[in-house]
């Protein structure tokens, strides 16, 4: 099935790309979550608009991405969350929480979709988080999760 991606999907493509995927993947995952729309001749006009919006939000050059990477890695991110007695969290830390904590700590504005967690953060302590700034540049930063 041909689809038009509306968001960047890791391993598949960027917003505005027209890709061919299995029917079930498109019907059950990509389209319901708003990551893609079905390809039609009329939808081809939307591709140009999606690509224009993507150019506004994306980091254009590797130099610019490396500059933001150094700013990100210099920021100390501390996130206060509710937790139980044994240090386990009530819920987990989401990429949106981390993006807002980076902004609150004085770091650059980061899109929550660019924050990649290796595994869900469900305990207190230090954790490593990756932020994909450019297809070739990713920043690694430490996040300290403390009890609120």
From TrEMBL:
Keywords: Ribonucleoprotein, Ribosomal protein, RNA-binding, rRNA-binding. GO terms for cellular component: ribosome. InterPro entries: Ribosomal_bL9, Ribosomal_bL9/RNase_H1_N, Ribosomal_bL9_bac/chp, Ribosomal_bL9_C, Ribosomal_bL9_C_sf, Ribosomal_bL9_N, Ribosomal_bL9_N_sf. The keyword Nucleotide-binding does not apply. Residues 13-40 form the Ribosomal protein L9 domain. Belongs to the bacterial ribosomal protein bL9 family. Binds to the 23S rRNA. This is Large ribosomal subunit protein bL9. It comes from Streptomyces sanglieri. The gene is rplI.
